[in-house]
Each structure stands twice: as C-alpha cells, then as structure tokens.
C-alpha cells in the first residue's frame, strides 16, 4: 500500500527571519467558506453554535473555538471552528489555502513594499482582500502583525516574494543604523 | 488613480478590472441585431465624464459603476452595479 | 527645397543661419476640394498621396495643435509586417514596402532602420503559434525566420535565458522589421505635401462638420468656416468626438498607452525585441536611449498620461527579461490616446454621409501603417472605392459580424485589445 503523507502548504519553506521581521506558517484546523442566502434568519444555527453574528465588511470576529472572517461581497470564512448544518452555501476549503503570519517590528515596512493597502492604518482584527505582489490575498491585521492567506498553489511564490522583501527591508535597516 | 469601493473603501487602481462603458448594463432583447451591434460595439466615448463598469477583482469582487472624468482621471462616484440595476427596474 | 551634402557642409560652416521653414504657414482658403481633419501621420500621408497619386492638390490639412503633436510624435516607432490575418497581412506588407522606399520618395531622412525584430516565445504552444504566423508572413511575401534558443542567444546574448518561470524557447525573427524616427516621418510627409501644393493649417481646430441633405459641405473651425467637397476624418484618438460632429457614432473606445525612454547608453540593443509572456518590448534609439513600452493601461482615457501600476508592470517585465536594464535610469515617460476598435483592427471607409470618409481605429499599432493608410485613404477619397489592400477594413464588419480581424484571437470586444 502507498502511504500518503499529508504536507502543509508551506512545509519546508518556513519559518523565515530577516532583520526585524519574521514569517511563519499558520495551520487552521479547518477553513469553511460561507455565503449566506438573503434571508438572514437562516443563519440562526450559526449564531447558536459560534456565539457571534457575522462580522461587518472588512472585519473579523472571535467566535467559540475559532474566528469568522469577512472575505468578500457576501462571503465569510470560518477558521478553526466547526460550522453547524446550515441553510447557506457552505464549502470546506481547508486544503485550498496557504496561511502565514508576518510579525516583528518591521512587519509594516515589509507590507508597505508588497501590498497596495495602507497597512499602517489597519487596526487589529480588520480584514482586507487585496494583493501581495500580483497575488490575490486575504490580509488580516492582528495585534502583533499580519496574517496572509493565498491560494495554496501560490504558497511557494508567497514565501519567495515576502522573504525577498524581508531581506530588502533588513538590508535597508542595516544601512540606516 | 484610486477608486473608493462602496464595500472596501479607498483602494489602489491595480485591485480593479475594467470592463468598459456602462452600456453593458442595458442588454438588448435577444435577436435584435441592430441593438446588439450598438450594445457590443458603438460607444459615445466622451472626452469628459463617463460611466463605466469595473470589478473590484482583487478585493470584494463586487461589480461597480464608476463615474469619472476621463480627461483628468478624477473619480466622481462609485456605486454597486447591483444597486444600479435594481434602481433601473 | 532639397537637401544636399554640399548644403549641409555650407550651413555647418556658416552657423546654420541659412535654413528656412520647410513648409508654408498659409491662411485657410474659403474652399478646398478636400479637407483632411488631423495633421498626424495618417492625415499628412493622405494629403501627400492625394496630390502625388491622384493629382488632387487643392487640399487642406487642418490640425488643431501643431504637426507631430499627436500620436505620430508619441509612439515607440516600431515598423513591421508580421500580421497574420488576411486583410491585415496584405495591408501591412504594402506599408513596409512603402517604408523601404520612403526616404527617396520624400527626399527626407526618416531614419527608417530595418534592424530586425524578434518576438520571443516561451512555451511549446507559443512556438507553434509563431511558426504558423511565420508561415503566413512568408506566404505573403515577407520574411520570417524561426529561431531556436541558441539562435536567439546568438542575436540577443544579454537576455535572461535561465528564468525559471518564463524560459526563452526561441523567437520569430522578422529581419525587415525595425524602427523609424517618428516625428521625422511627420515632417517628411508634411514637407512633401506642402511642396505639391497642400495647405497645412496648424492651430486650426475643427469644431463642427456641415452636412446638408445627407452630404458634407464643409467644416466650422477655430479659424472660421471652410467649405469642402469632401472631408476626411483622420484624428486617431479623437475619432469619436469628430465623428459626433456629423452625428455619427463609431465603434471606438479611447484608451491610454504609455511609453518610456532611458538615459542615452552605448549601443547594446541592435534589434526590436518583444517579451512573449509579459507586456514589454524594447529597442534602442539612434541617440542611445532604450525605448520601451508595454500594454494599455486598460481603462478609457483622454489624459495622455497613464498610471503607476502599468509603469510598474512594464518595469517588472523588463527586469524579468533583461535584468541588466535595472542599471539604466528612466528619463521620461508619456502616454498617447489610442483609438481602440473591438477587433483591434483599423477602419478606412466611407460613412453614411456623402463625401465624408474616416480613417481610424489604429489602436496601438498605427505608426507602421502611416504610408499605406495614407495611400489607401487617398485612393478611397479620390476614387470613391476602397483600395484592394484595405477593402476588408469597413465599419460594416462589426454590424454583420463577418470579416472581423481579431489578430490576437481574444474576441471582438472593446476591453480585450
Ligand atoms: C506610447 C505609444 C506607442 C506606440 N507605439 C507604436 C509602435 O511602436 N508602432 C506602431 O506602429 N504604432 C505605435 N503607436 C500607435 C501610433 O502612434 C498611432 O496609431 C498613430 O500615430 C495614429 O495615427 P496619427 O499619426 O494620424 O495620429 P495623431 O498623430 O494622433 O494624429 C491625429 C491628429 O488629429 C488632430 N486632431 C484631433 N482632433 C482634431 C480636431 N477637432 N481638429 C483638428 N485636428 C484635430 C490631433 O491634434 C492630432 O495631431 C503607439 C502609440 C503610442 C501612444
Ligand atoms: Zn470592494
């Protein structure tokens, strides 16, 4: 029998550190995409199970055993927590995304070089869909830095691009001290 | 150039995909050849204020109607295409 | 006025004080046989061939700015005949032949340089498509050579052949393709047309087109009314506005295309090179500047300047193809207004109005067309029937859907070219 070995999207690529920035992989227990129908009363079981309402556009909320993250027009991702049976468009996307955490004092400088958002003005738990280089990405501001999600097939490109910028920011930092 | 998406806020031009004149919202009746020709090809193409369709492709994915001045690149108004269609009905 | 080596020497030794303006600055007459609106490359060549080929010299070219202020002086000067589809193929072939005799025709140095053009390919599929295009070019009577990777390396050793994402598989070499000095082309045609009696009227904006009973009778301009038996609209990016003066709606959306030039460098790039996987193409001007560009900004615009994302994209693609270019400083960037048609091909045709003709829809590729466009537009206006190499380029192809010429094979839709 062939034994299949499950690998995480960024396995062997992370963690990475350069200067004042660090990049590491996040492995959510599960990722469930949720697109509600128009009738919001259908979402009751979700509220009962997770204890929170869906977040407003551009926001994420802590929920029981996980988080709910706004990810687009009428679309949300439930991270970690299990989603109860629900009358909505629900898909399991656990294996479809690569997720990383960018932290350290230079995280904002790194983002400034590679993302068109004004990341310095994002507040913790705020979310945006935007770009990392040319890659579509979901970007979550945390207390200590940023979480970035891209399609799993882009994992290597993501690590390559972000670590390249981390090196450049570190080099610039070294020059100015 | 920056567009203010009604859902996501002020964003860089590179997050958006441009489709073309908002004429695309007025689909002709199927089988009307002359109307289809106008819909697909003929354009006012004004050198001033125009209305066109964009999608917040790398953002929330919403389709937008953008009113802008094409000689100055000034953005005058951005609204959700689905609201425009609803209003027109 | 002719130019000669003796005259150059004499002027050079006497402080260049003897040069005179090479065309007149006439007052507009009350009436002409033919009025051409637009003094760009196409308007000027139309006027020249009306006089030269058809003996019609009572002609005025009305230009709202100055000669060469439009796209004819803003383009990246690539001249080639590597089109694929019937219609475009014979037209651009005709144009390249005219380019090759243009300097003696006009007695003017337009600096046409058939230095060779190489379109790179980066996959098996792209190779097949280019091989097919090359065969079409040869069938048409033009030249094309399929180069493999080593063949490209011999010509363009400075490219990055090892790029992991877009390795260079080879290139389609078009030896007769090349460049010309853009504004010299405008000046050369202007001078030659003027010599044959054409009035070039600069600073003269057409404000309205007079139509009486379905027939054109003249134009209203910023310098007064001018009567005309026939009027040609040859205004590139402004086609929609000028057509609207006659109540016409045309299948055109105006877009912005940017270009860039670096500081002057020693001769390094001997060809015109285009990247097959990112939007980037490059040549080196005779002054030494690297002249390069990419794709449209992809939104309707009349601003004659573009935005930063496309600049960044062009620079990224350039760095990918030719990392050494990162050492060069960009001196200038600019934009021009492109008259984009849904299928990406041009129009030289009559309009619904008697005596009113249009030459438009040049998209981002109308510089190479300047000689043949004028040739065919003059033929159409003089004889009231299309020239055989431009007979497929009608307005009607959009209405009927028959005979669309979508070179890129992306579909006949405004935002796809
Ligand atoms: C950045 C850039 C790069 C390009 N690169 C290439 C290339 O490498 N190869 C190639 O083949 N093509 C290229 N092109 C395309 C090419 O330049 C154009 O297709 C071509 O020049 C258009 O024709 P024209 O010369 O007649 O236009 P223009 O020079 O724009 O002439 C039109 C004239 O009409 C005048 N006009 C407008 N309205 C009025 C009015 N109401 N009254 C009087 N006059 C009026 C304008 O002032 C203008 O002078 C490029 C274009 C750009 C902008
Ligand atoms: Zn948005």
TrEMBL record, chain A:
Gene3D superfamilies: Probable tRNA modification gtpase trme, domain 1
Source taxon at top rank: Bacteria
Protein name as it appears in the record: Uncharacterized protein
UniProt organism field: Litoreibacter roseus
UniProtKB/TrEMBL annotation, chain B:
GO biological process: tetrahydrofolate metabolic process
A family per Pfam: SoxD
UniProt xrefs under InterPro entries: SoxD, SoxD_sf
Molecular function via GO: sarcosine oxidase activity
Name of the protein in its database record: Sarcosine oxidase subunit delta
Lineage of the organism: Bacteria, Pseudomonadati, Pseudomonadota, Alphaproteobacteria, Rhodobacterales
Gene: soxD_1
From TrEMBL, chain C:
One Gene Ontology MF term: sarcosine oxidase activity
Residue stretches in coiled coil: none
GO-annotated biological processes: tetrahydrofolate metabolic process
Entries under Pfam families matching the protein: DAO
Cofactor(s) demanded: FMN; FAD
Catalytic activity line of the entry: sarcosine + O2 + H2O = formaldehyde + glycine + H2O2; sarcosine + (6S)-5,6,7,8-tetrahydrofolate + O2 = (6R)-5,10-methylene-5,6,7,8-tetrahydrofolate + glycine + H2O2
Xref: Gene3D superfamilies: D-Amino Acid Oxidase, subunit A, domain 2, FAD/NAD(P)-binding domain
Every Rhodanese domain range: 34-78
Top class in the EC scheme: oxidoreductase
Protein family according to the UniProt entry: Belongs to the SoxB family.
Record PANTHER family: FAD-DEPENDENT OXIDOREDUCTASE DOMAIN-CONTAINING PROTEIN 1 (PTHR13847:SF287), SARCOSINE DEHYDROGENASE-RELATED (PTHR13847)
Protein name as it appears in the record: Sarcosine oxidase subunit beta
Gene that specifies this protein: soxB
